[in-house]
Amino acid sequence: MPRVVLITGCRSGFGLLTAAAAARAGWTVYAGLRSLDHGAALAEATAGLDVRPIVLDVTSAEQRDEALRRVVAEAGGLDALVNNAGRALGGFLELVEEDELRAVMETNLFGAWALTRAALPHLRARAPSTVVMVSSASGRMAIPGLGAYAASKFALEGLSEAWRHELRPLGVRVVLIEPGAYRTDIFGRNRQLSRGIATPGVYAPWVAGMDQLFTAMVDRVARDPVEVADTIVRVLHDPHPPLRYAIGPSTGLRAALRALVPDRLTEWLIARILRHARERGAQPPPPQNP
Ligand SMILES: NC(=O)c1ccc[n+]([C@@H]2O[C@H](COP(=O)([O-])OP(=O)(O)OC[C@H]3O[C@@H](n4cnc5c(N)ncnc54)[C@H](OP(=O)(O)O)[C@@H]3O)[C@@H](O)[C@H]2O)c1
Which residues are designated catalytic? Predict the structure, then answer.
């Protein structure tokens, strides 16, 4: 029986390419779109493959529930979830309005959290199963002008790391993908800047320069996003995937600099502590002093 994966944010970029790559690898793919009217590129890239478009704005509780209900009713269960939907926001933090920061968090953090939480009973029922969180190199190292985005991805990293430990004994593998720059619509159709950029005040000397540097850097180094899609599909097939995949231009180096303690060692220690806690919890409580 083909395994079933739900992927969010499949209109373009990593989501679209992962849907195609997973279907080619034999998966039944439910491909989330904010509107079915936005499915032309997906349909073209996945013609003849078992890819089923599904309405899913990750910020909508009704759409999250309805999407999961449909997947389980139609396909009989869920083996993997890829939280790919995301949005970026350019702008020095003082120029970012509260509603703008909240909007980034709603999609990149709360949407991924809420969908995963709702999917867990289904994923546990089909364990071993996998949750892939598409984070970013900006989830490990923040750069000026992308603070709101970095904050959302740092938060996603913390959430995912804790979930990895909590779900490991239950047979659900949580994996973070940390891409560097890849050529997708996030730098084009979906490129977003904070409203405050229009009146940059004291940041004026840096705003334009940063934007140019960033655009030039992306033009120069950004890679083919197929690389990320193929990595995600490899993760879906890996019985023992590591916690993090830093991929893309110079991300390996950045992640290596950050990782003073290897994840494997931390995981091993935390797994021991969890085991110890479980063993203690199973013992009768010590006698109380009179
Ligand atoms: N490209 C890079 O260099 C890069 C690097 C690191 C991390 N990432 C991460 O990779 C993921 C995919 O981005 P991408 O580069 O492939 O960009 P993209 O082509 O712009 O794709 C983003 C996808 O997310 C969808 N989306 C946005 N808000 C959503 C919501 N509330 N609910 C459901 N879907 C939503 C978009 O749909 P609409 O187009 O309809 O809004 C689109 O399908 C994101 O999480 C991004 O942060 C990208």
Answer: 149
Task: List the beta bridge partners of residue 33.
Answer: 55
For 33-91, what is each residue's pLDDT tens digit? 999 999 999 999 999 999 999 999 999 999 999 999 999 999 999 999 999 999 999 99
- Give, for ligand 1, the residue of 35, 115, 177, 186 to mutate: max count of ligand atoms closer than 8 Å to Cβ: 186
For CA atoms 100, 102, 103, 109, give the dihedral sign.
positive
Q: Is 185 in the pocket of ligand 1 (CB under 6 A)?
A: yes
Q: Helix or strand or coil: residue 196?
A: helix
Q: Which CATH number fits domain 4-275: 3.40.50.920, 3.40.50.720, 3.30.1510.10, 3.40.50.12780?
A: 3.40.50.720
**pLDDT, tens digit (0-9, with 9 covering 90-100), for 92-133:** 999 999 999 999 999 999 999 999 999 999 999 999 999 999
What pTM was estimated for this model as a whole? 0.92
Tens digits of per-residue pLDDT, 186-228? 999 999 999 999 999 998 888 877 778 788 888 999 999 999 9
Residue located nearest, by CA, to atom 40 of ligand 1? 34
CA of 108 to the centre of ligand 1 (A): 9
Reading the block at residue 71, the tokens are: 């997947």
Residue located nearest, by CA, to atom 20 of ligand 1: 186
140 lines ligand 1 (CB under 6 A): no
Please tell me the residue having the least CA distance from ligand 1 atom 45. 86
- Looking from the CA of residue 218, the nearest atom of ligand 1 is 3
Helices (H), the chain: 13-24, 40-45, 61-75, 98-105, 112-125, 147-167, 204-221, 226-237, 251-258, 263-282
